[in-house]
Amino acid sequence: MKVPEMIVKVEKLIEESYTPEQWKEFLQTVLADLNPIAKILESVETDVTLTDGAGSIKLSEKIPSMYEIVSVAYKPTAGRKRLLKKLSSFDSVSVGWYRDSDNIYLQNIEYGAGKIVVDYYELLTIEDGEINLPEKYHELVIKGMAGIAMQKEEELDRKSDFFGEYMLMKKQMQAERIMEMEPWYAQVVAPARLGGQ
Known about the structure:
Blueprint lengths: L2 H12 L5 H19 L1 E9 L6 E4 H4 L3 E11 L5 E3 L11 E4 L3 E5 L6 E9 L3 E2 L2 E2 L6 H12 L6 H26 L4 H8 L4
Antiparallel strand pairs: 1-7, 2-6, 3-4, 3-7, 5-6, 8-9
Helix pairs in contact: 1-4, 2-4, 4-5, 5-6
């Protein structure tokens, strides 16, 4: 569903209208709230130059829409891809990777020339009028926008309904995305997915 269609649905729900700038602000607020749980997996593979086993890539150039790094691997030109261990920036002897605010650094790589492969969770963004979120969660975004828009509403029961529905749907989405993207946490999320405490 495209963003303008979502806005029309929200306007029907709340029986109010706002300026395009306000709708954009409401939408950005909801997307920022959902970023930690959306877990939209992407991957990038890029050449990296190693000098004495060390190299780096600039995140803002290679992965501008990254929310969280899931894994980093090194793929030598002659050989198979090897998953690298995440290191502390103080560890200078182990083989692996670490990062600062805008770079991923590789250290002690002995495999020769190759590529770095970064799997990451992408930020929720709007491109060509669409959100990079599975369509089954668009209703959640609509409820979130309605909840935010109704904050000015004087009838509290109407405001509570939309925000309460949003929070319940958000909890369900979180459980589903963890089960799908990080199944090793299944025991932790199973009660939430089933509606338990």
